[in-house]
């Protein structure tokens, strides 16, 4: 798994997942429960992960739609 996006904005994660789903790319969000426990203050970012083999296509899909990709 490779990191594709890291953000405290849950709408950015949802948007990115919808874009990836449209491209047929599976993704997985890490740190969802941890970020909820901190009370919605935005201290703990969520991470969107994809398989190593999908990273290039996934990052291209997000960049084409104006989403900043983690390096």
UniProtKB/TrEMBL annotation:
<dbReference type="InterPro" id="IPR011322">
    <property type="entry name" value="N-reg_PII-like_a/b"/>
</dbReference>
<dbReference type="InterPro" id="IPR018551">
    <property type="entry name" value="DUF2007"/>
</dbReference>
<protein>
    <submittedName>
        <fullName>DUF2007 domain-containing protein</fullName>
    </submittedName>
</protein>
<feature type="domain" description="DUF2007">
    <location>
        <begin position="1"/>
        <end position="64"/>
    </location>
</feature>
<dbReference type="Pfam" id="PF09413">
    <property type="entry name" value="DUF2007"/>
</dbReference>
